Amino acid sequence: MKKTLKYLIITTITFFNANLFAQNVHFVQNGVIEFEKRSNMYAIIKKKINKENESWYGPAFDQYKKNFPQFKVSKSSLSFTKDRSLYKWTSPEETMSNNWATRDLFADLKNTIATDFNTQTSTSQKRVYEETYLVKDSLRKINWKITDETREIAGYECRRANAVIMDSIYVVAYYTNQIAVSGGPESFTGLPGMILGLAVPHENMTWFATKVTEVTVPEKDLTAPVKGKPTTNAALGKIVAGALKDWGSEALSASKVFNF
Q: What's the sign of the alpha-carbon dihedral 225, 228, 229, 234?
């Protein structure tokens, strides 16, 4: 009887404390997140060297390593409310981008993406070589696998989730449920909280939040882009495939970048 009573008391106290803690947790629903994208250029360039080009690409790579840092760093931001978000790039073009060795479609990718969480749609402004497209479509459906792994990002405890998109691109995301918005950088959504960390390991790239500011976001800071040829994801895929039909094996890689 005493053991039962003791158990009931402990259970009651634990339940009370858990409820008290839950009531005191503050969930962010609007603000601005600053992201840093890091592209491992040494790894990216090294993978492009093969037997056909190593005679000239190899020496160029060695020279590149002497003059440029390993990581190309770009800054972006995500303004958000519980209903909408706008992801855009805040840093100017890197000075090293004029060097041919630094040119990589994935590393240089700079989409502007407006997301409407109520309608589950997005408007993405994408630069495809010399053309700018305005892609309006539903949000990408991602089959996330949530794990028990956690890490702290920008002061928030985040949980890891894994997924494969476009059949072959492995993605790792870290999200926090302390920010009660199912958004994230680029076109990544669908987790029970905000994505503060994103990695595409096989492409040697990461996006990690460096700062989260809870602030009221003006309507103008959530305005979707309007410049570009209107299209959808499926239609853009066909456009890119047609433009790259003579590129051989490189076409598949480029197509995935523009549909990322």
A: negative
Q: How far apart are CA 249 and CA 246, in angstroms?
A: 9
Summarize pLDDT for 166-177 with one digit per residue, the tens.
888 999 999 999
Q: Which pLDDT score, from 0 to 100, does residue 105 have?
A: 85
CA distance 124 to 227: 10
pLDDT for res 12: 41
Nearest to 28 by CA among 69, 91, 78, 74: 78
Strand order, beta sheet including 121-128: 145-153, 156-165, 169-176, 194-200, 205-213, 31-40, 71-80, 84-89, 112-116, 121-128, 131-138, 229-231
CA distances from 65 to 43, 71, 97, 100 (A): 11, 11, 14, 13
pLDDT at 97 over 50: no
pLDDT above 90 covers a percentage of the chain that reads 64
- The rounded distance, in Å, linking the Cα atoms of 197 and 176 is 10
Question: Where do runs of H (alpha helix) occur along the chain?
Answer: 2-24, 41-46, 54-67, 233-243, 249-258
CA-derived radius of gyration, the chain: 22
Q: Bridge-partner residues for 41, per DSSP? A: none
Residue 95 has pLDDT above 60, yes or no: no
Structure tokens at 40: 């491992």
Among 254, 37, 39, smallest CA distance to 127 is for 254
Where residue 249 falls among pLDDT bands split at 50, 70, 90? Answer: low
Q: Which domains, and CATH codes, for the chain? A: 38-258 (2.50.20)
